[in-house]
């Protein structure tokens, strides 16, 4: 219902929003306002406040897509009012999601025949996909344990300590113990040998990451599969593997097709991928694919009968938008294998240029590898004068959003900067970023030498007495790092 109000004061004659009272009054923040305001005033006020957000294109913290073709944006806007869950009303949208599931399953080498339907579902992102995959593993494990007359109240999952926070969420929300393989300096992914050692009869699955969030490195799923097959044969257990291919799922098939990480490996039972990362769709779409029907327990699936055909659904939420699914299908048919390959090659090449520029400064050690997600993760060789957190903050001045964070256990003492190279981060932006990093380094070094003499002597007034406390530059640096760490709480804050 449209709401109309009669404007009684003189404002009806004031045509400029900026000349009206709406821009003078503070906006309500806690309670809904009593009165309506004109639509142009509402638009202007909100739009203006949003100007203070960062520029998404310069947000190098995120893997999530920040640019799409205008033709696809048109499709997105045209379907913005379609609730995905209304399958009766929007059967074509449902059909497009099914086509996407099939295409991704084939890309990941699922054992499905030419005209057979793959098993999978569209989600809001990889987090929901991981919750669903984790639930399927938990339920399958419980069923097996019950059938064997064994207890099933202490499930656990084995991952590297480098997993994204969504795995912690899964563990906490669905009461599964998270057993993390610790990292070490110089080795920032899950070691498959240590992971397999941690597996016991209560392990519902081992989760490997194709494209660690922290460094982009691909974990060795093939070795994990081999070692776990041996352990399963020795113990009689049947521990499966899930691959979290949130970022790498749309990179490896195009750039390293010979790399075996997917359903070619027999223990890989499910894979998630974010459509909104290198699937090249705006935020709000992920996918989970199961190897076969048997890997998804039927009692978790709800069956909706739309237009006479069975539509299995397995999601955490009911309503959601359709636009992202439609956009994913657009990208698949618009780009095809050829287009995705070209874009991923470009991203890798831009990441290489950026990496070289960063190395040439002589100040950083690059931790990311040449094979993996196109990103550059790098640490300062010498943090005695300034930290990566200082660099991240200084780069904001140029508009760049580059996250700095410390590694998880047992490599917490390593602090890195990470630049994600997306489709829309081109060569000239890469070169400009390098020159801005050089500028920031120069400024920080000049500042450090200016203040080092002063900072070494901190005068502290205690009561009447003047007490002189000497601090070394290292101590001051440690304090700065400690201060920053307060903002970097928990796992991977600020990176996604
Ligand atoms: C390896 C990995 N898994 C899962 C996620 C969560 O993905 P989403 O943001 O699609 O929920 C991320 C996000 O960056 C990730 O890097």
UniProtKB/TrEMBL annotation:
Domain of life the protein comes from:
Eukaryota
SUPFAM superfamilies referenced in this protein's UniProt entry, alphabetically: PLP-dependent transferases (SSF53383)
Can you provide one Gene Ontology molecular function annotated for this UniProt record? Answer: pyridoxal phosphate binding
Nucleotide-binding as UniProt keyword:
no
Output the Gene Ontology cellular-component terms.
cytosol
Residues annotated with N6-(pyridoxal phosphate)lysine modification: 277
Keywords associated with the record: Calmodulin-binding, Decarboxylase, Lyase, Pyridoxal phosphate
Question: Which NCBIfam families does the record match to this protein?
Answer: Glu-decarb-GAD
Top EC class for this record: lyase
**Which biological process annotations from GO are given for this protein?**
L-glutamate catabolic process
Pfam families referenced in this protein's UniProt entry, alphabetically: Pyridoxal_deC
Checking InterPro entries in the record gives: Glutamate_decarboxylase (IPR010107), PyrdxlP-dep_de-COase (IPR002129), PyrdxlP-dep_Trfase (IPR015424), PyrdxlP-dep_Trfase_major (IPR015421)
Catalytic activity from the UniProt record: L-glutamate + H(+) = 4-aminobutanoate + CO2
Known EC number: 4.1.1.15
Alphabetical list of PANTHER family matching this protein: GLUTAMATE DECARBOXYLASE, GLUTAMATE DECARBOXYLASE 5
Keyword tRNA-binding listed? The answer is no
Name of this chain's protein: Glutamate decarboxylase
The family classification in the record reads: Belongs to the group II decarboxylase family.
List cofactor names only: pyridoxal 5'-phosphate
